[in-house]
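User: Please predict structures.

Assistant: First:
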Amino acid sequence: MKKILVPTDFSEHAYNALKVASQIAKKNGGEIILLHMLELPHQGSDAVGSGHALPEIMLFKNSAIKKLEDLMDDECLDGLQVSEVIQFELAFDGIMKVSEKNGVDLIVMGSHGASGFKEMFIGSNAEKVVRNSEVPVLIIKKESGEFNVDSFVFASDFTDEIKKPFSKVVDFANKFGAELQLVMINTPSSFKPTHISEEIVSDFISNFKVDNYSINVYNDVNVENGILNFANYKNADLIGVCTHGRKGISHFFNGSISEDLVNHSKRPVVTFKI
């Protein structure tokens, strides 16, 4: 976690994410890339062509530059190497491009979630980033003060496809000195006896060097509820999941547990791409 990307729209949620990112960077000798995407009104493209909207565009840009410079002077960034980027682009597209171009290790974003019609048909930028990012994405929902991770709940089915991203999960837990609470969620539609579930998790974890962990099985009506309820039961500091990054029609019909958690969890969520 040496290079951390923090997108900002200068909102309270984005500032909460920046404070968490700064703490992670300080603990790991990392640097922060502070990104603001300048999304102009749709009619701006025609106006730009005629030259009529240029003063308005420059006003938007100068205002963003001033806000970004003020943010870079914030005390939470004291002692850190921080670079700033402003781009004229849709937020999601810009985040993906800047992340890839700069070899980012972690994206930290603030989110207030989405619900109802917006969740189904539009989704938040955080949700889109979680779905598509090749690097881990940490979603911060609220002011957390000191960001400590003592209890890290990681939920999975613990199949072979999880082994590759799980090495990043272990690294993340070790960097925070967290206890890794491994949990398999049993649901009515996919039920296994507890001893079978525990054996699956035990066989999986034997492939990794993890000093501080526990194996858990939790029964609930569906996977999302199971993760949220188990995290509440354990008073977890962080929830971690892997995501397939489904797109198109597959994503619409199958959904994504990670995106649901980003929308509905009140706790921080970190996702790892399979």
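Second:
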Amino acid sequence: MPFAHDHLLGIEHLSPGDITTLLDLAGQYADMGRGGAKHSDALAGLTQINMFFETSTRTQASFELAGKRLGADVMSMSMQASSIKKGETLIDTTMTLNAMHPDLLVVRHPHSGAVDLLAQKVNCAVINAGDGRHEHPTQALLDALTIRRAKGRLHRLNIAICGDIAHSRVARSNIILLGKMENRIRLIGPPTLMPAGIGEFGVEVYENMQEGLKGVDVVMMLRLQRERMDGGFIPSEREYYHRYGLDAEKLAYAAPDAIVMHPGPMNRGVEIDGELADDINRSVIREQVEMGVAVRMAAMDLLARRLRERQSPPGVMV
């Protein structure tokens, strides 16, 4: 499986072929996990360090589990209690990490571009686990794998992404990925939660939920990211749910077999009705969590292969 990238910093630099390669391998890992053979030695002898400068539950746990299932030595650093709090710069932290000789570095950071800067300074493969409002590539990949397995394809679908588009790195990565795979993308939300210049992304923008959902195959809800808001973006959570929260009445405008997604964590009764989120006939939210482990296994496996290729002597096949 050719994958000519030293890092996974975003979807923007991936080709449709790269995306397919990642998803194909992730699909194999997903099937392997469901079959009971959860473990592989793809990362045997390698060291994986997880650095989360923002708190995380799902993503960090998913990367830890993925690394351990692949046989890596996994270490997670609590950056909230680290030397960063004592005034150490990101570059100083990078120098310290280089001295530990890691092979894979998984980083989440509150500032856009910080992970890219770090990747320029370390001597290992880097995976972006979310940087500011920029990108969250593995979330978009796991969403894509979930869609492909539920719909049987990942092209020429009508996909609605609803809610807080402006503050969502998940939305940005999904818009880029789904666009590369020839899907029709609709963004639905209040004008206050739409980023400037969104029309340049080749998407359709709707303010009315019912109009935007007409006939769509996939409904992807987003979390209201209050931690990134510095003003009154919505009048109230109650009003927001009335206009933009997904319930059975609004979902009825979508295709009869439309699937419902949410990257989590969910605010039930704000972004989505709780019963709908748990509806096994429409919701694939649990599958998204499952596919997250498989996608992260695939990403680290492909980067490890690339790393070994670069480190092997000329003429030696890895």
